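Hey, quick one: can you model this chain's 3D structure?
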Amino acid sequence: MNKKAVILLSGGLDSTTCLAIAREQGFDIFALTINYGQRHTLEIESAKSVVKNFDVVKHSVIDIDLRQFGGSALTADIDVPKDQSESAMNNIPVTYVPARNTVFLSIALAWAETLGAYDIFIGVNALDYSGYPDCRPEYITSFAQTANLATKAGVSGKEFNIHIPLIDMTKADIIEKGANLGVDYGLTSSCYDPHKNGDPCGHCDACILRLKGFREACIPDPLNYRN
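Sure thing. Here's the predicted structure for all 227 residues.
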């Protein structure tokens, strides 16, 4: 029997590629999608479409309303920045959701422990990304230490591993890797502020970085940016 792994799956480009990598490595996949009150809820439907294209043991969608706290353009009535330069993206943007990856990883850890799964995959990236502090490798290392100190499994001699296979990859590298693994990027959604019909805006940080990645990979982005 293959080892079990919990994959944090947003429905975006990075997390979908991360799922494909976990599958390539022979893990039984338990996909976890979190509906946290984000304005771009289309990604949840994208996640549901993605898992249909993979051999996933179970897909869980968890509801947590971070809109009660706000503090981010993704969870409050704050405009999503558009047409920013890449240098401006190095600063922590208003699309940063306070402690989001800590919340997500904690939920993934709870599920993993109940499953007897000791591997968790998250598609964080420290190169082509908006400057989120919870996407850095030192943060992931710190969380893994906490996971092994704070769980029954951890103190009983089991070791949780947080996998970050995309951490040192450019967006183009990620796209090329996913394409080689058969990922259908037409099923994914990256835009922070999509149109009502679901088409990406083409101007937010996520769209700019995604388009840059496809351009550098010399692969056409299958999403519709005509609007």
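One thing worth noting: Residues 71 and 97 are 7 Å apart (CA to CA).
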